[in-house]
Amino acid sequence: MKDSLQILLHGVGYSELVFTDGSVLPIDKSQDIEIKVDATTAEIEGGDGFYALLQYITKKTGTVDITNATMSLADLKAITGDDVTSAAERLISNEAHTVAAGAFQLAKTANVVVDSVKVTNASGVPLTRLTSDPGASGPTVGQFYVTDAGAVKVSTDLNSTEVTSSYYYTDSTGLAIHSLEDSVPGNCEVRHRIITDEMDDGKRYELNIRVYKAKAKGSYDYTAKKGAAFAPKLSFTILDAGRADKRTLSYSVSEYTA
User: Fold this and answer.
1) Tell me, what's the pLDDT at 79?
2) Single pTM value for the model
3) Bridge partners of 86?
4) Which of 92, 150, 207, 211 places its Cα 20 to 30 Å from the Cα of 7?
């Protein structure tokens, strides 16, 4: 195969991330992928000539950006370095209640995330959550106390009035990622492959790009748009892999065989 072989690429292809623990994250529904390497140069000038005597590279940087058409918690784990945990938080909003005997019951009777509960009176004024049961005296008119079983105690002055609550509860069948302030993403190898259509010579070819070591930038964008699908972008910085052959990434072209 000649190095002057010209192939026509279109589409996105298939990618996967291979982490240091051996786990593999397939990425087969990406909208776009960009692998970019930049070089910063400097020049040495001297004499009366207009041209530099020497130009040399002072720094190389590389990035990999992948925008998926779908979202998974595994994607977010790769970006943030946070672990996937069992139990998901689910939102209940604008739940209406009528106060009776200084109390009301949330629709969820178990696993209420207490610190997420917000209660407002009929005028939309928020009540203050108490962190301990006020006892027989009960809360004042602007306060409430709630248990993880969704039992809410309020002032008897609110009897027969309407209040609205908003809160999360824990769904044990779901999964979650809780982004921690000190979490750091791990290193991974980025593998990408794209297969051409039939070329003029009647053959198909595949381009394989291998980034030997990369680290997620630890940032992501969640940008929802009306009438459009969206998913967080996976962004990585290419690192020195510390290889004896000094490779950081490779481009390989070969004849495709199914």
Assistant:
1) 84
2) 0.79
3) 175
4) 211
